[in-house]
Design goal:
- This protein has about 180 residues and is of the alpha/beta class.
- It has one domain (about 1-180).
- It contains seven helices and seven strands.
- It is globular.
Length: about 180
């Protein structure tokens, strides 16, 4: 119980600070906010334009989410894996490893939904080079069909301009908008 209070305090303090550092402005759609505040399970999807996208969504979300993350990033030995583990420990959500060659991760997402969780998926399966939403992989449709849960869409704009975190960025620290 004490750990949860500590995590909640960290989220309360870190959320606005980190969003400001990353220069993120968040606009909450009434429909998405209603879905999240209802306590019901939901599937959130978003365009994937940079390595920061999951962090930005985790920071902006009013509730912790379960994130579908490629195994290379979630279990690798690099800084990305350590950062994801730190965010999960701080209570910003949890990471579920997804591998396109094995069904275990997507089934874990389905179990999460059946237990009342909220799942965040970047349905293209990779970072877009243009900043536009790419072709969705079949996993999200499978997840929605099997769970019977509707999909709510988020949109990130501006992160694709980051020279540090995007594929073809030209700005060091661009202004980012998240429509949640």
């Amino acid at each position: 119980m004490h750990i949860r209070r500590l995590q909640s305090g960290f989220r309360y303090v870190l959320r606005p600070v980190l969003l400001r550092i990353f220069r993120v402005r968040v606009t909450y759609k009434a429909s998405t906010k209603a879905v999240l505040s209802s306590g019901e399970p939901c599937i959130l999807v978003c365009n994937h334009v940079s390595l920061l996208d999951g962090v930005i969504v985790a920071l902006a979300s009013p509730v912790p989410l379960a994130f579908a993350v490629d195994t290379e990033y979630s279990r690798g030995a690099g800084a990305a894996a350590r950062f994801l583990k730190t965010l999960a420990w701080l209570g910003f959500g949890k990471v579920i490893s997804i591998d396109a060659t094995a069904p275990f991760g997507i089934r874990t997402l389905l179990t999460e939904l059946k237990q009342g969780g909220r799942v965040m998926v970047f349905p293209e399966g990779c970072i877009s080079e243009s900043g536009q939403r790419g072709v969705d992989q079949p996993g999200v449709k499978w997840l929605a069909d099997r769970s019977g849960i509707a999909v709510a869409e988020l949109e990130i704009r501006g992160a694709e301009h980051s020279r540090l975190f995007a594929k073809r960025g030209s700005a060091i620290w661009p202004q980012i908008r998240l429509f949640f």
